[in-house]
Prior knowledge:
Blueprint: H1 2-17, H2 28-32, E1 37-39, H3 43-49, H4 56-67, E2 72-80, E3 83-90, E4 95-101, H5 110-123, E5 133-137, E6 149-153, E7 158-159, H6 160-163, H7 169-184, E8 196-199, H8 221-225, E9 226-229, H9 246-263, H10 283-300, H11 305-308, E10 310-313, E11 322-326, E12 328-329, E13 332-333, E14 339-344, E15 351-354, H12 355-358, H13 387-410, H14 413-416, H15 421-431, H16 434-437, H17 439-451, H18 453-456, H19 468-495, E16 502-504, H20 507-526, H21 531-540, H22 550-553
Antiparallel strand pairs: 1-16, 2-3, 3-4, 4-6, 5-6, 7-11, 8-9, 10-15, 11-14, 12-13
Helix pairs in contact: 7-13, 9-10, 15-17, 17-19, 20-21
Amino acid sequence: MKCLSKLAALVRGKFRKRRQVLGFQPDLHLIYRYTSGHWLCNDQEHRDTRSVTFDIVAFCRLAAEAVGAKAVTDMIKIGESLNRVFLVRFDTGVEAIARFPTSLAGPPHFTTASEVATIDFLRCQPGFSIPRVLAWSSRAKGTDVGAEFILMEKAPGLLLSDVLEDLPSYDRGMFAKTLGEYERKLLDLRFTHYGSLYYKNDVPAPLRAPTLIEGLSPDDELNSNFASDLSHREHMDIDRGPWRTAEDYMKAVASREQQWIADFGTPHILDDPNRVLPGKGNRDDHIKWLSLYTDLIPALIPPLQEQKRPVLWHPDLHASNIFIRSSKKKGKVSPAIPVTISSIIDWQGAWIGPAFLQLKVPPLYRTHDVPPGRLLPAPDDFDSLSGSEKETAKEIHQQRIRHKLFEVSAFPPEVLDMEAREERVYLKDLAQSTWKYGLIPFRMALYDVFQHWQEIVPGEDPPVLDSPVELEDLKLHHATWLQHQELLEVLDREFDLGEYGHVMGDRSKFEMVRAALWKKKLEYIEQGKDDETRRKRSLWWPYRDTLRDEVVLER
């Protein structure tokens, strides 16, 4: 707090000197610090990593110049998690959006530089409505602001999350089709390499791809302005691409995870709380199983080029990233498609990857137990269900219809009809985060892939990586893991918790929730059959400071 007070004094001094730039009195604690709630796991660390300090006078001066204004009249915080997001108002009446990435958003420089390049690249393509970047800096020391930032136009239209609940079921389904068709346009872009998009000057020359778009000369404007690369865990000596083949990319991901585990392998605030359960594995176990997975990668890659070609896809398409407007025809709302997309925001983390791994139904419409292909069977034994059961079955079926509508609208047939695709995607996703979740889900995902081996490699038997005893142990550990996952989900719903036990609201609400959960913890511990089980349960309780947990730290 002393540092913040000194910074406040400095800002007040600058405010007196440059009163024309700041047309408001900033609340620096609100602007710099996370204030939306508290976490039951590692609270201080979560709040600290989501805080960003910067020179607000320098930012307001730069922002005003970018929009042709004299002063910023207000900065209203509208979001804070991986990024701190502000609605910025100017004396001209113009509004813009400012985003400051936190340390959790991704590697310094590369995360911001890639997002800006991706937005600029897509705005050059027909059919993509994305707010224009007005000013940006990917290097904290590159400007007087002292932090990375992006200032962009405010997106036009209504935020989908504000109106989604008011849309009738039919309209929601039709919008799934609209959204799928929007994403499908990304498949018209034919890339030559796998990796992230950057301006060429933002990545070292050895990491640049010689070309970007199929069929264009290396001297073409698009190829000369952008490059592809994948830069994560920036201080490690690893293969950062760009990659020519899907196999090279997938092997690099597994190798990166292995090297990070070998060199570091330390707890992180984003670790899953259930990663400490029996079967989690030590460093050597993780490295061994990732090596076994690496040997399988050539068999996991599908044969058709359309299934594995480089594809750019939005990484986090949810209702708060989509802006819509009514589709009017002759003064009336269209009965077929009542809403259209006016803008899609938040391209942070977007990259070019193999189609069969990239193409996913967004969280907005994603649901479980949807079969591959174009057909969606009706609910089983529907006529024998009770009235309330039929209503539940109808709602679940409606969710699957929307899921399938997006798939059919967005995915090419070669990907849509691909066998065991979900199993392969899930396995790859876990391969790049085994330390975060522990080995149990990763090894079980391997087992599930082997159950579909005939669909993946017709005519071949699956590899045998576990003895019968080891497989039985794995299933027992997985059953325990599932029980604790269910416990976590039940408590999250009961207490309206976010990820890592986040409690939205003030400190008094947080303390009330924490006290109630303490009683739940005592009940959970007492369910242990003996002293040793109760001791373990006290350490396995999900809402704990994992960075200081003896079990987490035990290697």
